[in-house]
Amino acid sequence: MAKVAIMGHGVVGSGVAHILRSNASLIARHAGEPVELTRILDLRDFADLPYADLFTKDSADVVDNPQIDIVVECMGGVEPAATFIERALKNHKHVVTSNKELVVVRGTRLTAIAQENGVNFMYEASVGGGIPIIRPLRQCLAANHIQRIAGILNGTTNYILTRMRDGGVDFDVALAEAQKLGYAEKDPSADVLGWDARRKICILSHVAFGAPLDDSKIPSEGIDKLTRADMLYAKELGRAVKLLAVSQRVEAGYYAYVGPAMIPAGHPLSVVDDVFNAVFVTADMLGDAMFYGRGAGKLPTASAICGDVVDVVWHKNGVKAAEAYQDQADALDAGTAVTRLFVRVKGEENGPEEQLVQKQLGDVRIVRLLRFPDEFAFITGEEPFDALQKKIDALAGQLEIRQRLRYDF
């Protein structure tokens, strides 16, 4: 019998407890032996729960308890979670977590400790909630070179963009709706500024390319400057605006970025709406594949955690904490990636602003919407992202730039 302890009985931790207890026979069948929830670490009291006797406020009852085989971390944040996990790994306990911030900040160190002690450090649920993506990258696609990952990795921003497009509301209204529904925090910065997606693409790059866990090397832009007008232009152009996290392997290493982009309507990611997430993977042998589902929530995230628990029990005599690749891909300047930009500019039809754009940028596609008579948009040709940005910055000194975002990705 494998004995499990949970650290943190919040939304996700209580979901893990629910699944381990409710689906115990199914989990035992897949794991090859019974899996028993033994301890739960939390500073609060839960006397009304049927498993109240499992709670403890002393971390030693979990991380130093010789009877516990697997520790599930659902506390969130870096500390004290990292300290507790390190102690558990050194005490030869397998650890499963959904904590993306922890994985990005301390994942390399914790993985090394797990390897030294012959145990597993698993974090499937840290990206995409209930969507299986880390395990497929490491195992199912192990015979492939992963070439590119493009994902909608944040359900909150995807809900906001869906409401702006389909509901005809502005960003502030859509954000308030997301907060009321519990999709967005009171301080939504991590979501709407792209930080959450940046952490997740950092983890995916780490798994796919052997890249060091350092999200500071990944430039990110959020959705807070997008407007309803951007959605209308996208519709006119047969595209959808999404917050994308992209990572691509090139000969010298890899580059990654996070930012809003207009996706062609024919691309599978363009139809991923509401709070759903999706990860589009391109591999050298498989080709294209997409993983789709709810990217957050109590039971979807807890489901992914329990999947890791089953995997640990099934393979507990083998160490799975090693990286997918032993080579370390260097993070390159994402500004070298070739793309096109969509840019909105204040200006009358056939006016001096339009002539200036064509003079400075050459062959651009001009787009106008009747409902916005005082502006136009243009789509650039393909160039490195930084080179295009410099040209647009030069224009900004002569005319009013209202928006710019990637047109290709």
Question: What is the topology?
Answer:
Blueprint: E1 2-7, H1 11-22, H2 24-31, E2 35-41, E3 55-56, H3 60-63, E4 70-73, H4 81-90, E5 94-97, H5 100-116, E6 121-122, H6 134-140, E7 146-152, H7 155-166, H8 171-180, H9 189-192, H10 195-209, H11 228-236, E8 239-250, E9 253-264, E10 276-283, E11 287-294, H12 298-314, E12 338-339, E13 341-346, H13 352-361, E14 365-367, E15 375-379, E16 383-384, H14 385-396, E17 401-406
Parallel strand pairs: 1-2, 1-4, 2-3, 4-5, 5-6
Antiparallel strand pairs: 7-8, 7-10, 8-9, 10-11, 12-16, 13-15, 13-17, 14-15
Helix pairs in contact: 1-12, 2-12, 4-5, 5-10, 7-8
Secondary structure tally: strands:
17
Radius of gyration: 23 Å
Count of DSSP-assigned helices? 14
Termini separation (Å)? 48 Å
Q: How helix-rich are the residues, as a percent range? A: 25-40%
Q: Strand order within the widest sheet?
A: 3-2-1-4-5-6
Structural class: alpha/beta
Strand content: 15-25%
**What number is the mean pLDDT?**
92
- Unreliable runs, pLDDT <50, ≥5 residues? 321-326
Task: Give a quick account of the main beta sheet: strands, pairing sense, barrel closure.
Answer: 6 strands, parallel
3D shape: elongated
Provide an overview of this structure:
- This protein has 409 residues and is an alpha/beta fold.
- The strands form 4 sheets. A 6-stranded parallel sheet has the order 3-2-1-4-5-6, with helices on both faces. The chain has a 5-stranded antiparallel sheet with strand order 9-8-7-10-11.
- Helix 7 crosses helix 8.
- The longest helix is centred in the N-terminal third of the chain and has 17 residues.
- It starts with a strand and ends with a strand.
